[in-house]
Amino acid sequence: MTLTAIKRSLVDTAAGPVPAAAAAKPMLAAVAPVAPAGSQPTGPIAVVATPIVSSTHPARPQSSRATKIGEQIGSILASVLPSLVVVALLLAVWEIACASPKASLPAPSKIWLEAKDLIVAPFFVNGPQDIGLGWRVLTSLQRVAIGFGLAAVVGILLGALVGQSKWAMRGLDPVFQVLRTVPPLAWLPLSLAAFRDANPSAIFVIFITAIWPIIINTAVGIRNIPQDYRNVAAVLRLNHVEFFWRIMIPSAAPYIFTGLRIGIGLSWLAIVAAEMLTGGVGIGFFIWDAWNSSRLSDIIVALVYIGLVGFLLDRVVSAVGNLATRGIQAS
User: pLDDT digit string (tens) for 177-227?
Assistant: First the structure.
């Protein structure tokens, strides 16, 4: 190839003469070092080919937040909708069965008309005894909290003693098995004779009713502690207090909370029955007073309140138990 042909095949660029084939490619850019002003290049020109990156960005994946929200709504509907359908069917059957004027029980529509104030405004106060069902429920819950709290503390301690000591189990277990079969209201006359006041008597009835399942379940949980845990405690030389808090309570927690769930349900049953006989401003006395006044609609509304509060109490104890035991269930 002659010198003239070589010159014709080069194209002048800012970096210097470049072959025409390289300058014609759109995806390549010629890069060459720039010599200082007034100096002559002493070596061959370096040509570096770099690809030109497109300015368009790839499409980002769609957020899964909407999908998660949809799944949560679907799970909530799946758990709530069947119950709502069953309740609606029961109300419809109830309305049809009690629609006759000769019906002995009021229909749901009649209950709404007669007891609307108790449903819509549960926290009104018109006098010492004329208060809403919300305040009556809170009064009963206060008694339940005291009685159940005492039963939980004493029951866990006695259950740990019975479960840990064979002699304590042989001596106390028969006594517990006999006393736990006594109905709650059978203790009420004795408590009234001992305390001579309705409020502590009701609290004692709650205590004596709720303590038995707590003792029994705690004892079972203590007896089921794995032997490996006891061996570790012996190696670490834990004293009785450390063994109780670090080994016994964590290991028996699923059994303890099973007893607590049973105890809170029995406590709520006992306080309603006890208040019917002791009087006061609790939800139990309200039912008895409504019966004496032939207000059947008020009684049915109060029963709904009692059921909802009992359900919430069970859910609260269950949630605390799942949080404390990390979802481990008693076997």
Answer: 899 999 988 999 999 999 988 889 999 999 999 999 999 999 999 999 888
Q: Which domains does the chain have, with CATH numbers?
A: 15-51 (no CATH), 110-325 (1.10.3720.10)
Q: What are 92-109's pLDDT values in tens digits? A: 999 999 888 888 899 999
**Contacts (Cβ under 8 Å, ≥6 apart) of 193:** none
Q: What is the pTM of this model?
A: 0.73
Q: Which of 244, 172, 170, 171 is nearest to 212 (CA)?
A: 172
Q: What is the 3-state secondary structure (H, E, C) of the chain?
A: CCHHHHHHCEEEECCEEEEHHHHCCCCEEEECCCCCCCCCCCCCCCCEEEECCCCCCCCCCCCCHHHHHHHHHHHHHHHHHHHHHHHHHHHHHHHHHCCCCCCCCCCHHHHHHHCHHHHHCCCCECCCCCECHHHHHHHHHHHHHHHHHHHHHHHHHHHHHHHHCHHHHHHHHHHHHHHCCCCHHHHHHHHHHHHCCHHHHHHHHHHHHHHHHHHHHHHHHHHCCCHHHHHHHHHHCCCHHHHHHHHHHHHHHHHHHHHHHHHHHHHHHHHHHHHHHHCCCCHHHHHHHHHHCCCHHHHHHHHHHHHHHHHHHHHHHHHHHHHHHCCCCCC
Q: How far apart are CA 317 and CA 313, in angstroms?
A: 6
Q: What is the pLDDT of residues 280-326, one digit of tens each?
A: 788 989 999 899 988 999 999 999 999 999 999 999 999 998 888 87
**Separation of alpha carbons 19 and 253, rounded Å:** 83
For residue 323, give Cα distances in angstroms to 16, 32, 151, 320: 75, 68, 21, 5
Spatial CB neighbours of 50, under 8 Å, sequence gap ≥ 6? 28, 29, 31
